Here is the input.
Amino acid sequence: MALVTIDGRTIEVPDGENVVQAAARLGIEIPHYCYHPGLPIDGNCRMCLCEVEGARGPQIACNTLLYARKDKEGNEVPAAVVRTDTPAVRDMRKGVMEFLLLNHPIDCPICDQAGECGLQDYYMRYGKYDHRSEVPKVEKAKATPIGPLVILDQERCILCSRCVRFTRHVTKTDELTIAGRGDKCRIETFPGVELANDYSGNVVDICPVGALTSRDFRFKKRVWFLSSAPSVCAGCSRGCNVLIDHHDKVVYRYRPRYNPAVNDWWLCDRGRLGYKAINENRLAAPKVAGVATTFALALEQLVAALRSSGVGIVIGPDASLEDMAVAKRLAAHLGAPLWGLSWKEPGKEDDFLMKADLAPNRKGFDLLGIATDEASFRKSLPGLKTLLAIAVDLPDDVMNGGHVVAFASHDSPQAEKAAIAMPIATHAERFGTYANFAGRVQRVVPALDPPGDALPAAQLLALIGRQLGATGMPIDLDAVWAGDLGPQLGLPITSFYAFPAEGLQAETGPAPALPGAAR
Amino acid sequence: MKVLTEYLAHPESHTLAYYESHGGYETARKALTQLAPADVVAEVKASGLRGRGGAGFPTGMKWGFIPQGSPKPKYLVVNADESEPGTFKDRLLLEKDPHAILEGVIISAYAIGAHWSAIYIRGEFARQHAILETAINEAYARGYLGKGVFGTDYDLDLVLHRGAGAYICGEETALLSSLEGKRGYPKLKPPFPATHGAWESPTCVNNVETIATIPWILRHGGSEYAKIGVFVPGEEGKPPKVDSRGTRLMCVSGHVNNPGVFEVELGTPIIDVVEKLAGGVWKGRKLKAVIPGGSSTPILTAEEAGQMCLTYEDCAKFKTMFGSGGLMVIDEQQCMVRLLEVLLHFYAHESCGQCSPCREGTDWLYQIVRRVEAGRGEAEDFKTIEELCNNMEGRTVCPLAAAATMPTTSYLAKFRDEFLAHVAHKGCPQRVAATVHGAAPAAVGV
Here is the structure.
């Protein structure tokens, strides 16, 4: 541990931490563009210049690393004494802002970054100088697509090199470079190469200005209209932490959310585009024999179907832990067999974030002891009169062979064919928890309301259970956690609402380290 | 006193045969067979030799920074990327005395414990590259390089690496980036090359002239070298008052009758170099100004130059720098605004573009000075220039920004009248006068 004094306040920080991070612990913002905690230090933007006692001239905070230091008597002394808010430092920031904006086009009204732009923010906080340059701005290429997801505007670029370092050190794919010299410098892809790696969208997130924008998101919505909800990507069993950005019942994008135990700062492109499913082709009203009907009528028929004997329940790995816990209680009440199955095709897997298992909660079957044996399911199938399918797409032969009642979030062929289809919420419209492949249990909170009559599956199951006369059906999330999930997972959660943002590790051994992540 | 140029007049001076005929490689052989590396370092420390590339850092001390306990390999890199405008001393050594450089490399690499060394040569030096390559091949063939140098168990490989034509690659960390195969970007300091240089390993970067001086020092002894030049010890426990020992190659260019490279003892008055060695200011004109150490060093007026001797301390006294020894002489008819414009164009063109103050600032400065030169300047411009210089200097990754701002502020301070006259006359007064009187425009520029 090292001591550091910043603006007169001394704190202890881990060895090797830099002054930007140390200041953040004290709630002091040191403005920076090129520094990103997930990338190697480059020190090119010069925005974080500070005064460091005893140093020759101003120093950049990002490259001022703190290590334990002792004086001659062996007393621990601060590794650095830093001042971040003197008139001289304010002048330096203003000076750097002026250089950064010298060749930056003032096209904010048509720039998609406006509203979340580092230049706008810092200009208002640290710039505010009077414009004094008559030098014509350097002209470079604008609106150049450089990959399927990313479009480049060289003029807006401040050459912080975050994107270059990302492709060099995180994905190790090296598509991007800086070409040219002096103020003719620009970001370019290498000849014949496009920015088409599986993580290309991250360069949009880490670009502090409007140089790299998303081809998927741009011009769809001004960012100041968007609200964000912390959630988890449901695209694969990694469970990367995301922010769901939405407005007026429409999800516009996912952005990665930092979680060192799961995804660091990053998100794969497959997951990033996964938000589209939330908006499209949703089942908003129940269907009976493929015809939309009222919730009350459908529920009545569903309860009647489940009341008869010969019921089986199959739940998919897209369901949350709460759904699974309540399904278990319902199965126990009905004396019905319960399987956790899915027939999803596996996707691409790599050694970074992407997992082949495209379901977010398959680990939940293990953790809650739900049978995943397809053979026994197949064997029991002929004897079942009613099969309740929760958040799972059944193969055609099963679908055609029996009396299926389904909980479906989307208006799929399954919802069409099922005897009764009840609409349920996706992960974006509900509270819930998902266990990723390593047993990390992570919480989602609703970004929007479920469409129409849709309910979270757990809530719908509890409603049905109560109508069937089952006792102990939970009345809310806290009840699920107190009665079922907390004890079964061995997690000390007394209230769902106290769930930590970075998730909790269920007792399945330590979480594996992130392979390939830049550290 | 001649340390570096004694044998250069001979037309065959670059050949191995001639070099060996006057005792070449004997010093290196002696050092490797009879001296311990620490003794070599001690000898160089005793000589008082300071780096001849520009910063003037004591060479022996620099070698001492190489951590000998490090498990990483150690590297010696010779900076032959001589690009500072007005400097052409290394070119002379590369052309005329390549074996002295190689002998210096052998001794220096041995001293710091390096088994791999490289000479990073400026891309434009095609002829010098060919000469040096021949010399290296000769040295390898004789067993002076490679496995078992001089029959000892000391191995040393030498790689000749050609740059691609960038001024910034003369900056030691940018040179190392380029040597590693990356863009020639200066690296952040700390860490310093002595511990994290080429490929993150301890690396010593020395200038060609420094390296070429090493054989002489080992041959005659550090104390002999220390007798050349000026040395005034400080009071008890204080650093010396004057520590400018040895000789330097001064590259005299500009408006003199006899431009060229001259080896001078440190402490020689500048005016002696201009008048005696370089034959005085040409065309019988008066001296107006002198740039003492390459284009990036602050300029001296004729009056200042007349009072100044070539020592590091005098340079500091007159707020300029010894730099790389590129002494540029400017006669009375030159326009200082035009001169600054030319220099700033160079620095704007050569800024690597890595960090923002230099990338944007060098071109902005150039654009303003160009406008002033063209007669569209305003009095406000000089305030802007001074503020920009202040915002650039000392706030960048490397000293290139300072290389542009130091001359700018010194020209503006010492020749302010000329700048103001450009504003008042809406152009260069010389050119305006010439046009008004119908005469041919006076020669302007360097």
